[in-house]
Q: What sequence folds into this?
């Protein structure tokens, strides 16, 4: 058995919930990073002397464990080479595309796999070193799928939960992975494996029966020595109260009005807000918009599309190609249909703070969320949370996890460009009563299912497992 620690609740995630900030004098300190996960887990952290094990985000950055806001933070160092092979390589060029319907071809490199194993080992050992006897450990996401198994070997006394934030693919796709058995065995080290959608549970059960010598009945998978692993769906949620508070903040409301004025007070403001990722369907959205302009179905004098594309994974090749393609598309549309001072697409390759994002959400008449595959898509839920005025329409891809819950949205298949065009027009022309009714139904769900409830339900199931 490995050395034990004193924390009775431990979160393990690729990133620590803090960012290093350096002031003008060169002094560096830590600032809590925005994000629903840390907000939801902070009260549990405080109540159970929690620790959070994760990477700082920098190369060879290995500060000693430190305490902030009632959490012990335990940094796991990565070298520059490991960032390339583990994070940019195996996580974001192998697993990410494989788990998102192979929208771009996954790259399989044995060298990357070796580093993935090594880094997962390091995370598991760091966790084993801080967890108290019988502690509850909550492992996050595709970067750390081997951690549950390694941790169980090191510390059989722990209660281990794992949650996958991204889709879990069907057997036909997952079977491509040269290390499929090892990944399945890694996940099955947990007591509870959580997914965003029901379908993923079926995928895991089918794969485990086929490749992991497990016996499964419904959601219960029986593994070595008769040990049981439960798999279940826990659709993740957002900090609704915080978004609604910002949406009602007078400064945000003023900013939202200013945004509309600066865009020339269009009759229809459509908004896309995504990480610049090939899973998000930004190209399909632009294609539909370009055709609507070409056919005269929308008039650039009274309709504008604002597309915020937050910079993401800029050192991974597929993301560099995607950026070029999207920017070419935007340039073409604006070249054809824009006028001086009035582009047809306002494209912003930038990140913004929360108040600015909420001002944008409030300003948008139609929110366009068209991923080709998405675990959940929090932006769709954030739009609903921000519409305290019950206005606006949500166009939502059926391939986003959020579509299971937000069935009062305008659901679309983003591959069907004609269908997408028709849906955009429908959403732009929605009568105010119908918009309010749809928004009311979606808000009822989003408001009663916030991220604190998500964390509670997962941890209650884990304790019961
Ligand atoms: C993964 C899964 C799943 C965006 N731009 C800025 C910014 N954001 C915020 C959004 C939202 C979050 O980032 C993005 O969340 P998504 O769910 O849309 O997408 P992924 O990043 O792909 O997340 C996804 C999620 O994990 C959670 O389980 O839903 O399916 O892929 O909250 O508002 N935030 C700030 N500035 C920006 O410019 N501050």
A:
């Amino acid at each position: 058995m490995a050395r034990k620690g004193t924390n009775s609740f431990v979160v393990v995630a690729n990133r620590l919930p803090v960012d290093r900030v350096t002031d003008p004098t060169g002094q560096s300190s830590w600032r809590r990073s925005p994000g629903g996960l840390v907000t939801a887990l902070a009260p549990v952290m405080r109540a159970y002397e929690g620790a959070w094990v994760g990477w700082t985000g920098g190369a060879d950055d290995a500060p000693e464990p430190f305490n902030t806001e009632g959490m012990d933070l335990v940094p796991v160092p990565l070298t520059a080479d490991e960032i390339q092979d583990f994070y940019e390589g195996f996580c974001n060029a192998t697993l990410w595309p494989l788990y998102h319907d192979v929208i771009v071809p996954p790259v399989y490199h044995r060298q990357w796999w070796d580093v993935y194993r090594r880094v997962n080992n390091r995370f598991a050992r760091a966790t084993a070193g801080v967890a108290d006897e019988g502690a509850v450990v909550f492992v996050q996401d595709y970067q750390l799928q081997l951690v549950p198994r390694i941790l169980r070997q090191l510390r059989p006394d722990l209660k281990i939960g794992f949650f996958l934030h991204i889709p879990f693919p069907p057997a036909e796709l997952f079977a491509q992975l040269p290390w499929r058995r090892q990944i399945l065995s890694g996940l099955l080290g947990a007591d509870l494996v959580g997914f965003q959608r029901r379908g993923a549970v079926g995928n895991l059960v089918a794969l485990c029966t086929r490749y992991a010598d497990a016996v499964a009945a419904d959601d219960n998978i029986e593994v070595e020595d008769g040990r049981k692993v439960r798999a279940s769906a826990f659709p993740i949620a957002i900090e609704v109260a915080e978004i609604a508070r910002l949406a009602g903040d007078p400064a945000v409301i003023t900013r939202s009005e200013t945004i509309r004025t600066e865009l020339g007070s269009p009759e229809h403001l459509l908004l896309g807000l995504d990480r610049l990722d090939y899973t998000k369907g930004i190209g399909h959205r632009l294609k539909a918009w370009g055709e609507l302009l070409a056919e005269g179905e929308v008039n650039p004098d009274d309709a504008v599309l604002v597309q915020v594309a937050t910079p993401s994974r800029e050192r991974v090749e597929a993301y560099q190609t995607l950026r070029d393609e999207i920017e070419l598309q935007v340039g073409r549309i604006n070249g054809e249909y824009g006028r001086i001072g009035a582009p047809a697409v306002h494209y912003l390759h930038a990140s913004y703070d929360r108040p600015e994002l909420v001002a944008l959400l409030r300003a948008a008449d139609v929110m366009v969320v068209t991923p080709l595959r998405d675990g959940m898509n929090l932006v769709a839920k954030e739009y609903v949370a921000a519409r305290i005025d019950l206005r606006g329409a949500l166009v939502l891809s059926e391939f986003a996890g959020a579509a299971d819950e937000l069935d009062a949205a305008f659901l679309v298949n983003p591959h069907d460009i004609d269908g997408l065009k028709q849906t955009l027009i429908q959403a732009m022309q929605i009568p105010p009563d119908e918009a309010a009714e749809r928004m009311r139904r979606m808000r009822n769900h989003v408001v009663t299912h916030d991220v604190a409830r998500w964390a509670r339900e997962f941890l209650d199931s884990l304790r019961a497992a």
